[in-house]
């Protein structure tokens, strides 16, 4: 069976580097998205509670429905470059037809 790799609407709201808030063990924490999974995120967070630190080691996987956005990380701008421009700039891109 093939894996579902489509990004859900809830999943697309968060990106790596975003600051989010979530609850674990009836306490609210803030952290940063480290990695995206199909329905959840790996979050790195800080805590002063030694039991929480010992149990979670400053990382936790949280379902995307249980996250709240605090601050979005800056997203890199995608530049659309013409392929023709790249070929003229790079001598390796041209193939010679010498025989």
Architecture overview:
Residues 77-86 have a biased composition (Acidic residues). Residues 69-99 are annotated as: Disordered. This is DUF2187 domain-containing protein. The chain is α+β, with helices and mostly antiparallel strands. The protein has a domain at 12-71: Kinase associated protein B domain (SH3 type barrels, Roll), CATH 2.30.30.430. Helix content is 14%, strand content 31%. Strands 4-3-2-1-5 form a five-stranded antiparallel β-sheet, with no helix packed on it. A hairpin with a 2-residue loop joins strand 1 and strand 2 (27-36). The longest helix is centred in the middle third of the chain and has 7 residues, at 50-56. The protein starts with 18 loop residues before the first strand and ends in a 10-residue tail after the last helix. The relative contact order is 0.20.
Task: Characterize this entry briefly.
14% of the residues lie in helices and 31% in strands. It has 99 residues and is an alpha+beta fold.
What are the salient characteristics of this protein?
SH3 type barrels; 99 residues; single chain
> What is the name of the CATH architecture of one domain?
Roll
Beta-strand percentage?
Answer: 25-35%
Unreliable residue stretches:
none
Q: Could you state the oligomeric state of the chains shown?
A: single chain
Largest pleated sheet: 5 strands, antiparallel
Q: Tell me the strand order in the biggest sheet.
A: 4-3-2-1-5
Question: What's the SSE pattern?
Answer: EEEHEEH
Mean pLDDT: 81
Termini separation comes to 49 Å
> What's the number of extended β-strand segments?
5
Broad CATH class of one domain: Mainly Beta
Instruction: State the secondary-structure class.
Output: alpha+beta
């Amino acid at each position: 069976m093939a894996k579902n790799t489509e990004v859900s609407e809830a999943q697309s709201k968060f990106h790596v580097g975003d600051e989010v808030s979530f609850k674990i063990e009836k306490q609210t924490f803030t952290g940063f998205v480290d990695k995206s999974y199909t329905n959840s995120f790996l979050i790195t967070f800080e805590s002063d509670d030694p039991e929480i630190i010992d149990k979670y080691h400053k990382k936790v996987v949280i379902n995307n429905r249980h996250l709240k956005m605090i601050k979005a990380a800056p997203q890199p701008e995608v530049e659309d470059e013409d392929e023709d421009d790249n070929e003229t700039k790079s001598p390796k891109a041209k193939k010679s037809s010498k025989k």
